[in-house]
Amino acid sequence: MAGTRRRGAGRGRPTLEEVAARAGVGRGTVSRVINGSPRVSDRTRVAVQRAVAELGYVPNRVARALAANRADAVALVIPEPETRLFAEPYFSDIIRGVGAELADADLQLLLTLIRTPKERQRFADYLSAHRVDGVLLVSVHADDPLPDLLERIEIPAVLSGRRSAHESVPYVDSDNTGGARAAVEHLVERGRSTVATITGPLDMYAARCRLDGYRAALRAAGREADPALAVAADFTEEGGRRAMRELLNRRPGLDAVFAASDVMAAGARQVLREAGRRVPDDVALVGFEDSAVARHMDPPLTSVRQATEEMGRAMVRVLLDEIEGAAERTAARPQLVLPTRLVVRASS
């Protein structure tokens, strides 16, 4: 049929621009449809798909990447075991945000777990060959060498969180100190007299900031922070259980606990129930993140809401800016801190 003849026949491959012209939309809209983005109307999607079929357009990612001297891929690196990846909503929310934002950028996502020094070295060798255009690094510990390696080999990178207050690599973070302070102020205002905390691993800056917020709220209330009321854990449910047992051994009469993650709060809740301590009657409980875990606990958990999915989206936006401006970077690197807020539920 003459009306639907493949325009590319006899004169090379049809282009993205030709598809856009045939469908009556912009080039970016065609890219979104091809990459499966949900941010396109059904009518537009049908028009683009019809134009693709009529023209015989086939995306040539490899050719485009070679022409631009790009890998056309971004690595999302999580230096944690699979058990944490699938057990903690934080990681799935970050991945969801990253994936949603990359859907509009026409880039491949490479998800990488690093669990051992050998895996870290293998990934470092992979990066040194510049097989990705940029790296998103989640769950950063203070001694993690990857951020410095990325700077040395000049691969754009963005961290979820920071290694310290003087982080040199671009990052997107939450207001961890302010969120923790709001949580503990809430417990003090509810008349709780002995407020304990279960911290995350203190080689992570986010965990130290949440501990700082806990201490700041107590100081503001005219109270001294008792070291016996703070136990470090590892952001896991089992870590929350171990820490809660230790707190009850140290201070059986405690009447409130701020856990630095919802997952640790869930572990603490189990131990409190086993010990016959009612939540919130005997012990008020507050978490951090406001994940699905908080909403489904019994009773529902008061928690500090951080915009985890938006953090993932923001990381991609910052990284894309870094990739595009890699040749003209200045000393001022992007540093974005997203606000938090306390969501009060029955546990407190």
TrEMBL record:
Residues 14-68 form the HTH lacI-type domain. Pfam families: LacI, Peripla_BP_3. The keyword Transcription applies. SMART domains: HTH_LACI. InterPro entries: HTH_LacI, LacI/GalR-like_sensor, Lambda_DNA-bd_dom_sf, Peripla_BP_I. Keywords: DNA-binding, Transcription, Transcription regulation. One of its GO terms (molecular function) is DNA binding. It comes from the Bacteria. PROSITE patterns: HTH_LACI_1, HTH_LACI_2. This is LacI family DNA-binding transcriptional regulator. It comes from Streptomyces coffeae.
